[in-house]
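explain this chain.
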Amino acid sequence: MLLPTSIQYNIVLFSILGGILTGVLFDGYRLIRGVGAPRAIVIIEDVLFGGLCGLIVFTFLLYTNYAFLGLYVYIGIVLGFIVYMKTLSSYILKVERSSARKAGKGSRVIIKNFIYICKIIIYKIFEKSK
């Protein structure tokens, strides 16, 4: 069955967007993974990332183009990934790194304040029991 041109256009467009989504996920994975991990851990992380990324992209395609998985969809995903990595990756990676740093600082402040409050409460409890 032939699909109308507008649906074919949407399928190609969303497959390219799926490739860009894969690139964004890959940048996030590079940020999380870091360097210096043992080889066995890296292999396990890579397999888990591949599975998770595949599920996310398939779900994206399922909601946007009924998950038509023809050859041109895979070509669109690869092209979208390559275009993303060549053009936007460095900018998005900088944004992800600065966001991670700010989130880390914010969570450290919250945790330190929470620990400080807990110390005060524990100190008051043990001070009254003496």
Notes: The chain has two domains: 5-87, 97-130. The longest helix spans residues 89-129. Residues 97-130 form one domain. Helices lie at 5-33, 39-65, 71-87, 89-129.
